[in-house]
């Protein structure tokens, strides 16, 4: 198999790697531009506060429980009355976006926050609950959920950054995989490490936002604040994992097969076939037929040379 066969062998993992890279880019671009509807649909978690805003403030029912519940209601009432709360909030990897919904149900993103490393969604800050802090308005379940979310999201962000850096490195090194299996081996190693961080990023992100959605549902549903996970974003996340793992497996196969060396070099030409001999001249047997020698042959008591005598040959 020559270079063309080698190229065909590594085409599949290259295409899978490109698909993985594209999915990672979409994860990073989610909620980055309020004017691009495709990116606005990519979010990890969405909080819908439309029903809370629409209900008459005086008729919002009190939520049974601790005083923290009552303080939370009052803080939300104040924020809604000051028009500081929007109809929905969408959380991405770097930031969040907010917007309004018209009577027809059409959503319009009006603002996206600046990008920030290890971003986490702080309801008190985003909903502009002035004069309160977390311990005053959240019950213990909400405080524990926010604390866990804040810690895990930092690890998830770091894992996403490392995974995409390793993906870029894999894209560079895989060019050498076209030439030899050593290139495939190096690419396989990088791909394996990348996939570990990619799986860690996807798993931790899925777990933390699923847990946060559960906490929001328990604590905020009585206030008609709904939360939901972003199905499209998590589809892209796990497609990136699937493409990355598949490309790693193909790189592993290509490091064992498809050497890229041409088999024509191993063929023996007809004129150099084995076990073919030709006569060579010998100082003992005289010159080859048709040749002329000069000088005299010394005399001596030598036996005459017979026609059946041994004649050396050389192998070609």
UniProtKB/TrEMBL annotation:
GO terms for biological process: fungal-type cell wall organization. It holds the Pfam family SUR7. Residues 290-316 are annotated as: Disordered. Keywords: Membrane, Transmembrane, Transmembrane helix. The chain crosses the membrane at residues 157-183, 195-216, 236-257. GO terms for cellular component: cell cortex of cell tip; plasma membrane. PANTHER family: CELL MEMBRANE PROTEIN YLR413W-RELATED, INTEGRAL MEMBRANE PROTEIN (AFU_ORTHOLOGUE AFUA_6G07470). This is Integral membrane protein-like protein. It comes from Sporormia fimetaria CBS 119925.
């Amino acid at each position: 198999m020559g270079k063309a066969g080698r190229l065909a062998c590594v085409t599949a993992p290259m295409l899978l790697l490109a698909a993985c890279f594209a999915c990672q880019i979409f994860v990073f671009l989610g909620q980055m531009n309020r004017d691009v509807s495709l990116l606005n649909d990519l979010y990890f978690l969405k909080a819908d506060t439309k029903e809370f805003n629409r209900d008459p403030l005086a008729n919002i029912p009190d939520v049974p429980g601790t005083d923290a519940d009552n303080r939370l209601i009052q803080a939300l009432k104040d924020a809604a009355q000051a028009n500081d709360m929007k109809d929905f909030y969408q959380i991405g990897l770097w930031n969040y976006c907010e917007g309004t919904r018209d009577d027809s149900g059409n959503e319009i993103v009006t603002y996206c926050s600046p990008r920030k490393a290890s971003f986490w969604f702080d309801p008190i800050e985003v909903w502009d609950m002035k004069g309160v802090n977390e311990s005053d308005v959240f019950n213990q379940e909400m405080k524990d959920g926010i604390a866990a979310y804040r810690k895990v999201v930092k690890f998830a962000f770091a894992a996403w950054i490392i995974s995409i850096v390793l993906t870029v490195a894999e894209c560079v090194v895989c060019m050498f995989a076209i030439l030899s299996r050593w290139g495939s081996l190096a690419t396989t190693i990088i791909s394996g490490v990348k996939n570990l961080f990619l799986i860690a990023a996807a798993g931790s992100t899925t777990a933390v936002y699923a847990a946060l959605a559960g906490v929001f549902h328990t604590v905020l549903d009585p206030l008609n604040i709904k939360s939901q996970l972003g199905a499209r974003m998590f589809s892209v996340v796990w497609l990136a994992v699937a493409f990355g793992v598949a490309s790693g497996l193909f790189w592993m196969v290509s490091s064992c097969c498809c050497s890229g060396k041409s088999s024509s070099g191993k063929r023996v030409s007809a004129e150099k076939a084995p076990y073919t001999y030709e006569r060579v001249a010998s100082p003992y047997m005289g010159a080859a037929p048709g040749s002329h020698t000069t000088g005299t042959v010394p005399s001596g008591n030598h036996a005459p040379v017979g026609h059946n005598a041994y004649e050396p040959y050389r192998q070609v």
